[in-house]
Each structure stands twice: as C-alpha cells, then as structure tokens.
Amino acid sequence: MDAELHPVQRAWLDNDVAQCGYCQPGQIMTAVALLRRVAAEDREVTEADLDDIRNICRCGTYPRIRAAIRDAARDM
Ligand code: FES
Q1: How buried is 35 (Cβ within 10 angstroms: 0-12 exposed, 13-18 middle, 19+ buried)?
Q2: What is the pLDDT of residues 15-74, one digit of tens each?
Q3: Where does the record place the [2Fe-2S]-binding domain (predicted)?
Q4: N or C: lower Cβ tally within 10 Å for the chain?
C-alpha cells in the first residue's frame, strides 16, 4: 500500500499531521500544488512559501504540516 502513496501523503503519515482531519484534503492539495510550482521554478521550498499557505486548521497542526511539506520536497 505504501508504494501507492504520493510523497506528500507519505510525509503526512510519517509526521502524524492530522488531528481531526477536517482540513487535511485541502492542506495536502495545497502542499502538492506548492511543491509542483517550486519544482517548475527549479528552486527549494522556502519559509516564505510555507508562510504564504492560507489554509486554516482549527487543530493547529501547522508545525507538522510545515515539516511534512519539507520532507515531501526532499522526496519529490
Ligand atoms: S486537523 Fe483538524 S482542522 Fe486541521
């Protein structure tokens, strides 16, 4: 099953990101879009890129979201 996961999904699981999970589909889609844009621009993800994400998470999982995106960036 792991082989079928997108690197962002794998990073989400590895970082135990989700709490209630309500916001997670949007967070993951935003992360994938960000990583694709950064790759197309042939550069690394910056803290400013992560600061620009506006998806709201009522559970406050932002530190784990940021860590997961950084991990996924290394794997993509
Ligand atoms: S995990 Fe609960 S709103 Fe984000």
Answers
A1: buried
A2: 999 999 999 999 999 999 999 999 999 999 999 999 999 999 999 999 999 999 999 999
A3: 4-70
A4: N
As for ligand 1, residues whose beta carbon falls within 6 Å of it are: 18-24, 57-59, 61
Q: Which CATH class is domain 2-75?
A: mainly alpha
Task: Return the ligand 1 atom nearest residue 59 CA.
Answer: 2
Ligand 1 center from residue 59 Cα (angstroms)? 5
Q: Distance from the CA of 56 to the center of ligand 1, in angstroms?
A: 8
How far is it, in rounded angstroms, from Cα 32 to Cα 40? 12
- Angle CA 9–15–20, to nearest 5: 80
